[in-house]
Amino acid sequence: MKRAFPILGVLTAVLLSYGLYEALVAAPTEQTMGDVQRIFYYHVPSAWTAFLLFTVNFVASVVYLIRRSVKADIIALVTAEVGVVFCTVVLVTGPIWARPVWGIWWTWDVRLTSTLVLWLIYVSYLFLRRFSSSGQTPLMAAVLAIFGALDVPLVYFSIRFFRTQHPQPVIGGEGSIDPKMLHALLINWAGFLCLAWLVCWSRYRLELLQREVEQTEALEALLDSRRSR
Amino acid sequence: MSAITNIARASLSKDLRLEWRSKDAINSMLFFALLVVVIFSFSFDPTAEESRRIAGGLVWVAFLFAAVVALNQTWARELRNQVLDAYRVSPAPANALFLAKALGNFIFVMVLEAFMTPLFIVFYNLRALGPAYQLLIVAGLGTWALVVNGTFFAAMSLRTRSREIMMPLLLFPISIPALLAMVQGTTAILTADFSAKFWIVLLTAYDVVFTTACLLLFDAVLNAE
Amino acid sequence: MNHVSHAAATPVIVINDLVKQFDRFAALRGVSADFAAGRLYAIVGENGAGKTTLLRLLAGLTQPTRGTISMLGTTDLRSICRQVGYMAHPSLLYDEMGGMENLRYFARLYGIQDDEHCTRTIATVGLDPTLSRPVGQYSQGMRQRMSLARAMIHNPEILLLDEPFSNVDNPSAGQMTHLLTELRDAGKTIFVVTHQASQLEHAADEFVHMEAGLITRRTRELMPTETP
Questions:
Q1: Tens of pLDDT along C16-41?
Q2: Residue pairs spanning A and C at CB distance below 8 A
């Protein structure tokens, strides 16, 4: 286990560097949008990674509700934090891409808007974790995660229907993709997944250690006063 | 099952009775609602043509504003003397209490909306070009969507710091699809530019999903330490 | 010092190595005890000794960090909640409603629809059932007695009372004590957490002394040093 971590670190570095090269140099320039389109290789994998992390958060939350497992709670916390970071990347790269290409910062397109709502839900989740009193935080957070997961399909369908009535440019394009572009995309996604795993793992270990420290301190407090009586 | 309806009925009638007796909350809320409508009318002063297109959004934002203030009061009476402890040690099912509180909030917010709507009609010269009865359906479904989650999150906020901001902070993101549906549905009926049917279906789905989730999970939230 | 041996009959409550921690603060540090049925236990000790925490754990309002509680033969406290009545220092009543109205509502929570029963219970605690004054305007003695009525409305076998005599006038306190002895004589098990141990000097079967989250000793009589 301990050896896997540095290996993962190296793998991440390799994939991200290769991905960088692929995205900026090797992949062909897009026809209509030009080089600006290359942000696509960061925008899309961030989105996929964020969605994956939030899915893991949902599963961990359900496990916590059923089994009250501390590990499940930590996994939920960790994936939410890292997921929000990747989600932020999506929301920042989206407008950066849209502005030069379509002349507008924001388009309320389906995917970007759904991502925004997901981001809002998970930021509120993080606020709940921070503001609730420590005894119930895991339970409340798990319940909120479930509410969020139930909301996701409703968000998607409502915005999609809204968009069919008020069509606007779609960021990210549709239709088929050039195989060399797909290659760059997948390399970057692999790199992002490894990065996400790396960060989550570190954060998990940190949180686990922190809780163990608190447990030990509490136990010491318990024994200390027993001894002094 | 009958235990749930009996206790829900007893709780709801108690809340309505107490509200009717003091009329404190309803009076202050009605005045607050009036203020909201007036301020909105100052801030957005459209022509008759425009107003029909934006009224849906305006009206629902105003309703949302008023609803949040009302929802934050949901558990105020129970908190005063730790009454929730008495509830928790009793065999009464938690979701009976939830149902009573959600229904009470629903009635309260609907009263506010019934009060604000004619005012909006007056200030904005509104007239529905589409089937007006559908407005009632949208109002009912939409209000329930806000109230059911709002009551639930108000309970979750009881054990957090900054209780009063926590409830809307949790409620708003989750309510976005419902808010979109309420606004679009209302606009559809006012302008008759498109059909409100999809939005009514979406609101119904939203209400069913979240009412079920709230009823199932309220026990865990109430009895969390 | 008289030490009381463990209950001879089947104990109604068995606590095993009960620990309750709030973050770094350990309110209970490993309490083990048996309690027999039909006795009135006075739980005494300084502030912060863990008395209220113990009572709340018995009521099922909070979960132990470690250890077990077995009540009436089961560790699932929710399942026997009909047999348990709880009274705390806040009144657990609605200030805006009268006494009878409050009781009627709380009785409903236990499935009791009978108004007569509520009237009788209020009379038992020495209050007037026809009094329409809102509970918020009661004196502390009246309020505590009404709260006791609420705790007893469903005729539970076990009563858990947290500081019932706090800020209560002497006549009310005496009345409550008398009522508690009657209930104990009728076979109920009663736990009273109190600072005013002298109030129960002649009523309690046993004094459970707590200090810093542990039970230090159990005595049949109140020690002279404890008399406040």
A1: 999 998 877 888 988 999 999 999 99
A2: 27
User: Is A28 within a domain?
Assistant: no
Q: What's the number of domains chain C is made of?
A: 1
**ipTM of predicted complex:** 0.91
Q: What pLDDT, on a 0 to 100 scale, did the predictor assign at position C228?
A: 53
Gap from A33 CA to chain C (nearest CA, Å) = 56
The pTM assigned to this predicted structure is: 0.91
pLDDT at site C3: 44
Residue A3 lies in a domain: no
Contacts with C30 from chain A: Cβ below 8 Å: 222, 226
The CATH number covering residue C88 comes to 3.40.50.300
In a domain, C145, yes or no: yes
The beta-carbon contacts of A100-108 under 8 Å, at least 24 apart in sequence, are A100/A36, A101/A33, A101/A36, A101/A37, A102/A169, A102/A171, A104/A169, A107/A168, A107/A169, A107/A170, A107/A171, A108/A159, A108/A162, A108/A163, A108/A166, A108/A168
Residue B160 is given by DSSP the state B
Q: Is the Cα dihedral B199, B201, B204, B206 positive or negative? A: negative
Task: Note down the domain range covering A156.
Answer: 34-167+178-220
Contacts of A among chains (3+ CB pairs under 8 A): B, C
In chain B, the residue whose alpha carbon lies closest to the alpha carbon of C60 is B89
Structural domain includes residue C11: no
- A65–B177 C-beta distance less than 8 A: no
Residue A23 lies in a domain: no
